[in-house]
Amino acid sequence: MTEKFKILKIVVFICAVFTIIGVLSVMVNPYNTGAGVDKFDKVVIDADSENENSIDVVVIGDSEAYRSIIPPEMYRKYGFTSYVAASPAQKTYQSYDMLEAILERQKPSVCILEPNVLFRDYSIVSSVWPRFEKTFPIFKYHNAWKGVFDSDYKYDDLSFDSFKGYRYIDSVKATKNVNYMVQTDSTEPISTSNINDFRRICGLCEKNDIKLLLLRTPSIKNWNYAKYDAVRQLAEKYKVKFIDLNMDNSIGIDWTQDTYDKGDHLNYSGAEKVTNFLGAYLDKRYDLPDHRGDKEYASWEKSVEKYLQKTD
User: Any idea of the CA torsion for 104, 55, 166, 101, to the nearest 10 degrees?
Assistant: First the structure.
């Protein structure tokens, strides 16, 4: 057997392997099947269900974002659309990936980043592997083949009460109203990888003519003055608007009533206060359209109706 023939066999084998992997990846890809998704993919798929170019404001970040911002409430009062494209324990590279995925079908005027993600570090390996899984979903959804060949196979249930990305919860688990934003001389470090991801997010927004806003929602457990100061300096350096609702509590958060987990996240009453502030702020400072009454935004009217039924 000649050397050239051996090389050809190896090339053919490699091509065959990657062809099989590619076919299997298409078969189990949740973006094609809509089933077997993880929480990150579910957010993207749900956002993809919105009409093309129908989202005016997109919110990226972690659970602090999807527990604090209520898009149907802002639409009801002001008429602009927003979507909370946030996922649990989101990393900054995922925030970038989320925004990039949203921009495939949407052209928002404003992007809001919840900066709690800037203090969640990750390894290089952990950021590279998800991109490999995105290219070849069979490695991520290797159990999903059961759903392809077995109609009775049950995927994990990732359903939740969602209103354009907001996750409703009205239970109360109180904590004391404490002064957790005591000024100090220390500044919480932000890792180089997170700063680089933030720069990429800034670049993506600039490229797509999107106004970037940093909005830190109230949280006793996850925030302090040192973190505020770090984000303030970062925002000043990159000329990005930063609002921290923990600094003066002008919106009136009451930690004996407005949290469901002792100050980690807000419940509905706390989220309503954040949303009332944010809606008025966006309406006043950005030229956002009023879609109320437009038949192209009927899904938003239905979302508001469902939201009011849930909260009344």
Answer: 10
Three-state DSSP class for 196? Answer: helix
pLDDT in tens, 91-142: 999 999 999 999 999 999 999 999 999 999 987 655 454 554 555 554 444 4
Whole-prediction pTM:
0.81
Tally of residues, the chain: 312
Alpha carbons 269 and 273: distance in angstroms, whole number: 7
Q: Rounded distance, CA 287 to CA 309, Å?
A: 30
Rg (CA), the chain: 22
Query: What are the counts of helices (DSSP H) followed by strands (DSSP E) for the chain?
Result: 12, 7
Distance CA(30)–CA(178), nearest Å, equals 44
pLDDT tens digits, one per residue of 153-164? 444 443 445 699
CA atoms of 134 and 6, how far apart (whole Å): 32
